[in-house]
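Risk mitigation, structural track. In case the binding assays with flavin-adenine dinucleotide fail to produce interpretable data, a predicted complex structure has been prepared as a fallback.
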Amino acid sequence: MHCLIAGAGLIGASLAWRLGQRGHSVTLADAGTFCGEASHAGAGMLSPEGERFPDAIWAERAQQSLALYPGFIDELKRESGLAIDYDVCGAQEDGRHFPNEAIVDPRDLARALRQALARYRVEVVEHQRLSALTYSPEGVQSGRFRADAAVVAAGAWSSQLQVNGAALPESIPVKGYLLGYHGAPKLGPIRRDGHTYILQRTNGYTIAGSTEETMGFSRDIDPARVADLHRRAAGLWPPLANLAPADVWTGLRPSTATGRIYTERWGAAPVWLAYGHYRNGILLAPWTAEYLADQIQRQ
Ligand SMILES: Cc1cc2nc3c(=O)[nH]c(=O)nc-3n(C[C@H](O)[C@H](O)[C@H](O)COP(=O)(O)OP(=O)(O)OC[C@H]3O[C@@H](n4cnc5c(N)ncnc54)[C@H](O)[C@@H]3O)c2cc1C
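Fallback model:
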């Protein structure tokens, strides 16, 4: 089977990897660069306890995905030969402790996935925006690409694609800021208080988040937002008060108008939806990739 995936974020790339491992060929087309959007911006908390999910099924899937993580990381490290910063450091919130929660560096995941994909019949095509998918009994077509099945994994941009002229469920970008600090003391577990959180990579680089704004596709940086986030972060963990953020960045979380996460077939079309992972796409990537690889294979 040949599969065309629109969007090479962590969701599309993880799925391409799983399909490649099962012997399928994949074209992984991205409007920008490989894992260059939300999957580059994300903090990488793997925190099913600290997050709200659309329903109990997704809360359960988040736990399942967390449980898949150690195997996912080991396999990716083995296939890529690259290191991945992954730390089961636990989390603390409101005096409660969640010992199984973890942190992964999504940029390490992206590098390792890119390397691992080269082992399989997966063609990565960057700077290739797909807009229309059309299907017939012969398969799916988008511009010069033809496939037996297609997947829409274009994050916040997913509903910009149409399938046989029909609109897909609306995807919505939700902007978030993160701050990065050098020189902080050791943090230990992730600290959270409502929308404020602090985590630390194993090399000591410390990240504070975040904000939520629905304002289209703008990635602009507002100094007032940065100052407010720094103040909240220093309130949660006072050692940050003496440091200035070395890095400031924003990203666009893929939310949806319904609040649903879509991992399903689009009606009777040979087209699958894989978007809406919102604040938890890094956490949910291993589960989503395995689930959709199974479903698409059974098509
Ligand atoms: C500030 C911030 C903090 C976060 N922290 C966490 C966290 O701690 N833990 C966690 O689990 N998640 C976190 N997330 C969420 C997580 O980053 C996302 O849910 C996840 O990266 C979504 O992956 P994706 O592949 O669906 O989308 P993306 O990574 O956005 O990938 C979509 C890709 O589709 C491409 N594309 C767009 N349009 C088209 C088109 N027409 N044709 C082809 N390609 C197209 C884009 O160029 C992009 O590369 C955070 C997000 C942000 C912004």
